[in-house]
Amino acid sequence: MILDTVRQAIKRYRMLDKGDKVLIGVSGGPDSVSLLYILSALRKELKLNLHIAHLDHMLRADSAKDREFVEGLARRLKIPVISESIDVMRLAEKGSLEEIAREARLAFFFRTAKKIRADKIALGHTRDDQAETILMRIIRGSGLYGLSGILPKRKIAGFQVIRPLIEVPRRQIAAFLKKKKAAARQDPSNLEDIYFRNRVRNKLLPLLREQYNPNIGELLANMAQGVAADYEYLNAAAGKALLRLKKGGSRGKVDLDLKGFLKLHPAIQRLVLRLAVSDLAGSTRRLTFQHIKEIEDLIFNRPVNSVVDLPRGVCIVKKKQVLAVFIKQK
Amino acid sequence: MILDTVRQAIKRYRMLDKGDKVLIGVSGGPDSVSLLYILSALRKELKLNLHIAHLDHMLRADSAKDREFVEGLARRLKIPVISESIDVMRLAEKGSLEEIAREARLAFFFRTAKKIRADKIALGHTRDDQAETILMRIIRGSGLYGLSGILPKRKIAGFQVIRPLIEVPRRQIAAFLKKKKAAARQDPSNLEDIYFRNRVRNKLLPLLREQYNPNIGELLANMAQGVAADYEYLNAAAGKALLRLKKGGSRGKVDLDLKGFLKLHPAIQRLVLRLAVSDLAGSTRRLTFQHIKEIEDLIFNRPVNSVVDLPRGVCIVKKKQVLAVFIKQK
Asked: What span, in angstroms and rounded, lies between the C-alpha atoms of B119 and A128?
């Protein structure tokens, strides 16, 4: 059953091609261990060339045991493993520990995938991770991009990241491991500042499931699937509009034709602004609905030469004919 | 403050034009009574010609007192009032009471608006109604359309319906009435099957506000605002695609060019299917994500002449060159 769900998801999202070299991120927790077993079971059928990457974040005293566990598992399954240890706590002196840990992990995966020339990086996110992510984004405020949740297949920094378990509910994972009599380490997600996710996982989602709708997990996942397609379409339209509106600009600066911008549909206007900021700042994290509202106020109501300051040092100035978006010099 | 919020919303969504004849739906509850006071305060400024419509659903023994209350208020404010009583319970022998009550109320508003030649129908939905609606739709499963929530301005059956209070939180309503020393009847929303909405209103939303994010109401409203624009853009694109793909058809039937359909983006494919069904069946209520998935399976995987049955007697048959969508003869 779990194998069928994964096979279907792999097919639907074209996650894997025959002969792919796949780097599997394995923390040692139930999700990634199941992913490892499942891809290992599909290895012949899909002619996969599997490798394992394990990062020891050194956040718990016994984290080395996770590493030993994963390395033992790799030996038994005859899959090469690349491990590394990084003192994430020391990196995280400033900023969110969860964020830093995530970035360190991804950087390690990318480094390793490059070294072994992997075609894909496979991660163990489940349908429950999907549901939690969407609820968190709803609670913290989100637009279409956030409501797309975790994408089944996504290019990050040039690497193809796939989530074969994205349609598998977590309870099936536990049942799968039990049936296989396979062990896994504790889910290593008790970092301080993923407290919010833990509350959503352990309190809010069960409450919604028990008292409001038993199918909430599936429905949130369906919603994400639909919204992701909608977002993709809109984003492509906005990308084309952005290209059309660009009137020169240089490194760290882009000028958008104001007259053309005003002719766009409001939905595309907002996405064009997001894309322009993302191009300059590398991401739109921390760009909120309030910022977008302020930019709209700048464009529609304020006089020429008015300025809006955005996170990550991005600045927008309304000129007579263009909207100038640039990174402020420090 | 509440007046400013309403003024801004009226301006942003172009709800009212000078000289408009506006029919205000007034139940007698705090929301619609506040709406009445506010529009009455804006009457001169916007040169409004106000009328009141009150429907007595006869669902409570003392519902006639709501009617008397509203008629008294109308006299004091010197606004003409049209009241009617309908035994909704008798209409609702089959089907959902909430649904029937809503339909009876809307039909009464439309009938009355037509009679007095009103330009707009104003209803008292608040930002809290918006937040509840979106949460309910998330919990029950929804796509972009549902996540758009309650639209500030929307044409229904040819009538322009506006919601001037859509950005006003309910706590401001209570404060407004208290300050004005104005009375209102109990909110008459204790129908049996709006139990679900009441749970969302009285339990879930307060829980999210207190334990997860104090700004949840505003964030959900922002989300709805963004998503509504996105949906409008996509829906317009799908409408154009549908026109292009129509290969004849007759009353109760439409043929869609299959080859052209397959070239569309998946997001537009789904919306085209929804629009085609909506054109035939009058609405897409009860059309779920599972139905859309089944249609996609029909199109992509099943042999020619396969059939999918949908709610409201709609049928889809895959032919060699077209997708035939029609209402089944009984």
From this structure: 48
Residues forming beta bridges with residue A81, ordered by sequence position: A52
Q: Does A77 touch chain B (CB under 8 A)?
A: no
Cα separations in angstroms, A143 against A132, A280, B184? 16, 20, 36
Q: Flag whether residue A213 sits within 8 Å of chain B, measured between CB atoms.
A: yes
Of the residues B132, B142, B201, B223, the best mutation for testing chain A's interface (the one with the most A CB atoms within 10 Å of its CB) is B223
Encode pLDDT of A35-90 as tens digits.
999 999 999 999 999 999 999 988 888 889 999 999 999 999 999 999 999 988 88
What is residue A160's DSSP assignment?
E
Rounded CA-CA distance A109/A157 in Å is 11
**Closest CA of chain A from B53, distance in Å:** 34
Q: Which two tokens stand for residue A286?
A: 């921390």
Residue A154 burial class via C-beta count within 10 angstroms: exposed 0-12, middle 13-18, buried 19 and up: middle
The answer on pLDDT for A190 being more than 60 is no
Question: What ipTM did this prediction achieve?
Answer: 0.88
**Cβ within 8 Å of residue B71, ≥6 positions away:** B54, B81, B83
Residue among A143, A223, A233 whose CB faces B234 most closely? A233
CA distances for B20 relative to A31, B24, B49, B74, B154, angstroms: 60, 12, 6, 19, 16
What is the bridge-based pairing of β-strands B307-309 and B314-318?
Answer: antiparallel
Query: SS3 sequence, chain B?
Result: CHHHHHHHHHHHCCCCCCCCEEEEECCCCHHHHHHHHHHHHCCCCCCCEEEEEEEECCCCCCHHHHHHHHHHHHHHHCCCEEEEECCHHHHCCCCCHHHHHHHHHHHHHHHHHHHHCCCEEECCCCHHHHHHHHHHHHHHCCCHHHHCCCCCEEEECCEEEECCCCCCCHHHHHHHHHHCCCCCCCCCCCCHHHHHHHHHHHHHHHHHHHHCCCCHHHHHHHHHHHHHHHHHHHHHHHHHHHHHHECCCCCCEEEEEHHHHHHCCHHHHHHHHHHHHHHHHCCCCCCCHHHHHHHHHHHHHCCCCCEEECHHHEEEEECCCEEEEEECCC
Query: Inter-axis angle of helices B30-41 and B63-77, to 10 degrees?
Result: 10
- What is the pLDDT of chain B when averaged over all its residues? 91
What is the dihedral angle through the alpha carbons of B203, B204, B206, B210, rounded to the nearest 10 degrees? 120
pLDDT digits (tens, 9 = 90+) for A132-180: 999 999 998 888 888 999 999 999 889 999 999 999 999 999 999 999 9
Across B241-260, average pLDDT: 88
A221 in contact with chain B, both atoms CB, cutoff 8 A: no
A13 phi and psi, to 5 degrees?
-95, 10
Query: How many residues are there in chain B?
Result: 330
Contact between B138 and A222 using a beta-carbon 8 Å cutoff: no
**Tokens coding B319:** 């032919």
